[in-house]
Amino acid sequence: MEPSLARVDYLQVGVTAQKTMRLLPASGKKATQKVVVGDQDGVVTCFGIKKGEAVPVFKTLPGQKISRLELGGALNTPQEKIFVAVGSEVRGFTKRGKQFLSFETNLTESIKAMYISGADLFLCASYIYNHYCDCKDQHYFLSGDKINDVLCLPVDKVNYITPVLACQDRILRVLQGSNLLYEVELPGPPTVLALSNGNGGDSGEEIVYGTSDGKLGLTQITGTKAIPRWEIGNEKKRGGILCIDSFDILGDGVKELLVGRDDGMIEIYNFESADDPVLRHDYALSESIASIQGGCVGKEGYDEILAATYSGWLTGLTTEPVHREGGSGEELKLSQEMQSKISSLRNELEQLQIKVLHEQERYQQYSQSSTAVSSVPAFSVNDKFTLNKEDASYSLILEVQTAIDNVLVQSDVPLDLLDVDKNSAVVSFSSCDSEPNSNFLLATYRCQANTTRLELKVRSIEGQYGTLQAYITPRIQPKTCQVHQYQIKPLSLHQRTHSIDQDRPMNTLMLKGQFSFAEIHSWVVFCLPEVPEKTPAGECITFYFQNTFLGTQLESTYRKGEGYFKSDNISTISILKDVLSKEATKRKINLSISYDVNEESVRHTLKLIHPKLEYQQLLAKKVHLIDALRELQVHEGNVDFLLPKYRSILEEADQLLEEYKRQPAHLERLYGMITDLFIDKFKFKGTNVKTKVPFLLEILDGCDQDGLIAFFDAA
Prior knowledge:
This is BBS7 protein. The relative contact order is 0.06. Strands 40-42-43-44-41-45 form a 6-stranded antiparallel beta sheet, with helices on one face. A 5-stranded antiparallel beta sheet has the order 35-36-33-38-39, with no helix packed on it. A 4-stranded antiparallel beta sheet has the order 1-28-27-26, with no helix packed on it. The termini are far apart. With 715 residues, it is an alpha+beta fold. A hairpin with a 2-residue loop joins strand 4 and strand 5. Helix content is 23%, strand content 39%. It contains 11 helices and 45 strands.
């Protein structure tokens, strides 16, 4: 049975961060629950709902932005004490709003993640984890990459403190005291952790994780190793997961999994069998879901899902039926309660309109006076620039607390703008001169009214690096704009991976010189995405990468004074050689560069590229035939006389055109990669073969793999 859920918007606070809204425990069996939320204005708001209206319990004064909000209390008692992380400080409030704790942690960075279990407080800054007990420092750990979330297995079930860190490098780090117990490899960068069923399951060891690329999974954290239980991919290409809760919203006695995503999707997963969860229901809001909770908020006896969105809206999906009684004709009789609510909303709207007019008049008078001072209205932007493994493109997601008017996108490197289905903005391109100003892309997205979230997709070319800039203008007066910059790195299509295939034919680049570990690390950060900016602990580090477009791989190992880079794609080695030499020259460091080229690797890379090339050439040929075949269809009225392959092109015409439109310049990119591979192969031999490129392009048009390999060998 599908759940029947009705949407209710309760209240709007300031912009909210991830995991900053919770429901306080109910005072009785059928009583409604109070909501507590912290926003980026530094205000903690606690309210309840009476007769459909939000009734405040308490509200604190503004201050520094609140990065996390958790509930705590003695173990095995109702968790009704409110704890908020503000900068490097943790504050505690009672459910009535009285502050009882102000704990300055002395962390050098702001708190990014927090978890509370009884007297134990677990805090994480970007790379640092700290464990406190009764506000006394107990344990410390320095992570190899950024920490996104933290939790601890329930002490009453597992009998010892087991903190788990969700780290950006696709790893869960399980700790024991100040030491790393073991690591758990995940399919994507984990953004949120939650105890399965709200209590860690029967064993207390089960953790649910959500990743930034939209995957969901459950793993069992035992004392010696992790046991993966299930994993759900992101076939529907939805947003990253920001929040998870467990609650029985269907009323079947089994808690469902509630998931909130950064594209506004709320999902309910049901455990029909004992194994994998099944998606039972989803609901789309227009902005990212920062926090999600299941409980009873609006009316006694009716459960609901409460979500806090990025712009601060607290929205409920309630099981309470919306009663409508049929009147005479098609009229609907509204209840007395609803009529009074509409009347009060009308009065409130009129008062707001009068207030806005009054403030506009005041602003006009003030702006024309001799003492006028220009002030730029501040607005918050939530942005995310990530590489998608599925189609080797970058997603740029921009979310603003108010409606977006337009976004201008500019780049000093060649980029392809790809179509996004969810995008309703109108895009217009401006011609730009690439020579004097290095301007390769200039496009404007004009958004429809009330658009607060915009998603763009771009594909870069490896070896060409620079900056993508987004100029964001919201619909506010006076007009103002924010500029956000995103680095396009030399090996921009590479993504971190846990391991690589060591049996592939590899080319090796070796660097030696008077450089420090921090210096060579900064060069690797400059060249490759997903490398932590902080210099790793220890004397040596190895990172593995995979090219999302071609499937080639890279192994990078370096220490003070030397670096080794291995790849099955000679073009990757060529790009690294050029960029690293340039970076070392900038710092006046002499490099000794040597390389070992494996001839077999070129054939191997061509075999990886060829199926993609063949597919794209066939797609292009089919698309070019569509207009002629449609014209035949109009003239003849019947296409039975056509060969089956041509009839199938007509039948699939819309899908073929859609796919071709979604992947502009895909074929040109593949031609470019093969040409670069050809030039790079001979560059390492000291031969310039640019004059032979036209012959190579002729062979590519023929799409003959053996002929292509023979040309590479004979040139």
